[in-house]
Amino acid sequence: MRSVRTVAYELPVQFVLSHELSVPMYAVLRYEADDPYAVRAVFHPPGEGRTVEWFFSRDMLAQALSEHTGHGDVLMWPAADPGRDVVFVALRSPAGSALLEFPARGVDSFLRETRSVVPPGTESSRLDLDAELAQLLAGN
Q1: Whether 54 contacts 73, CB under 8 Å
Q2: Computed from CA positions of residues 60, 45, 21, 83, in that sequence, does the dihedral angle turn out positive or negative?
Q3: Is the distance from CB of 79 to CB of 97 less than 8 angstroms?
Q4: Neighbours of 52 (CB within 10 A)
Q5: What CATH code is carried by the domain that includes residue 20?
Q6: 3, 35, 66, 119: which one has the fewest Cβ atoms less than 10 Å from its Cβ?
Q7: Which tens digit of pLDDT belongs to each residue from 8-31?
Q8: pTM confidence score
Q9: 113's torsion region: left (phi>0), alpha (psi -120 to 50) or beta?
């Protein structure tokens, strides 16, 4: 049996409401070696007793450090201003949309640690495709 290794980073995030106004909150980025392509982001909106979860591709998050990426409901890009060390994440759902500002250094540190757990290019070796297919066919 494989050991499961989890990487979790809590980062300060800005929820951008307008060009002049943003609200600070926290997000936890979580990576599990047994789900090697995904990063789960758990947001803690201020003043609310609940959390909001989104899943991103680890590769997409890494790409966002240097260029615009994403499609559909998730778009990411680095700040255009070289003086701002942030990554923007735009999320859209039927319930609404959000623009978030992540510290790029925190994202980079998180990704470096995930790469030490599952190096890029080795993700497929962590998956048991036969078990996944059997579970899908069983309707679970």
Answers
A1: no
A2: negative
A3: no
A4: 16
A5: 2.30.31.20
A6: 3
A7: 999 999 999 998 999 999 999 999
A8: 0.82
A9: alpha
